[in-house]
Structures are given as C-alpha cells and as structure tokens.
Amino acid sequence: MEPVIERTLRRGRETLAAVNDVERLYLRDWMDVVFIYAISGFVGTLHETCWTLLSKGVFEDRSGSILSPFNYVYGLGALAIFFALRGLRKGHQVFIVGALLGGVLEYSMSVIQQYLLGSRSWDYSQLPLNIGGRTTVPFMLFWGLLCFVIVRWILPLMLHVVHAIDDDHRRTIAVILLAWIAVDYCVTLPAIFLYAQRADGFSGGGWFADVINTVFNDAFMRRHFPNMRV
C-alpha cells in the first residue's frame, strides 16, 4: 500500500500539474458548463458581498439573483472567458483579450439589462475614464489581470477537481444545479422587469405577474437590489 505521505505528495504534484497545464482547459461534457457557471457565480457573490462589507461597512446580498447565490455576471463571464481565451498560450495575449472581453461584457450586460428589463445594476459615470458609465478603463485592466489568473490557474484547478468526482454523482449535482439556476432565472428576470414596470406606473396582468408583484414587491426589490436603478 502506498504510504500516506507519498500518496499526498503525488496528488499534490498532480494538482499542481493540472493548474499549470492550460491544455487541460477542455470540456468533458455539458456538466462542466454548469459547474463553471455555478462555482464562478458563487465565488463572485462572495467577492462582491465581502467587498461591500469591507468598503461600506454594510452587509448586502450581491448575488444579483433572488433564489440562488450565483451571480450571473460572474457565471456568464467565466464561461465567456473559458470559451474565448482557452486557446491562447501567451500571457500578454490573455491579458489584452481578457481586458477587452471584460469591458465588452460589462458594457453589453448593462445595455441589455437597461433596455430589456428597464433597470441598471451599476453606473460608473462618476468614475474617471468611464465608458458611457457602464465600464471604465481601470476596470478593464483589472478584468485583463483577472482573466490571466482565471485561465492560467483557477479554471484548470476547478476542472481538475470537478473531473475527480465520479460521473454518477457529478451528473446528479449538475442536474440539481441546472434546475436551481433555471428556476432562479424564471423568477429573477420577471421580478426585475415588473419592478421596472411598476416604477413607470404600469402593472403586468395575469396570475403569474400578480404573484411576482405581491411576493417581490418594491420593498423587497429595494432591499435585495440596493444599487439597482429603475
């Protein structure tokens, strides 16, 4: 039997090899997409919540969702980073493309939310070097650095851990996560849309809209989305 210390060291070397091997950035199946979205979204929520607590001294739910802890900006952003940057090998390429990609994503998500749902979750108009108040050059540089770290270390480690789970358990967890995310989208998006409609003096018709308007009323939405403008 392999000694415990040798086995631990061997697994440690395998993990380090996985983290430093960009060739491991591949999708085994659809379940990897779910795991990347969920893990990245959850980490994003923790990051945003802790940052708000440290910088403002207040606790705010920064998930951007109602029924899940998965921040959609970070979840979708991680998937975009994965598919756009996994083929790049040079560090400066990852940084430059990542900075541009981060800026485009942040800008486009802001536009889509404003014109599709009638609300805005962030406004950088008062910050220097902002682009339409939707992103800034310093933030884009941060996105470039973050993309480099994500592509070089975080995503390989994440997939290495996910692929270590046996297929049956991985499938069960992925199905549960996917159902959770889908239900959350089906509630969060209508709630934000109807919140903006109420701000404009309109109220949606139908039983579903009535339920959403009652359960997720203005007081709830202001408390849950304190930075959202409608």
From TrEMBL:
The chain crosses the membrane at residues 34-54, 66-85, 94-117, 137-161, 173-196. Keywords: Membrane, Transmembrane, Transmembrane helix. This is ABC transporter permease. The lineage of its organism: Bacteria, Bacillati, Actinomycetota, Actinomycetes, Bifidobacteriales.
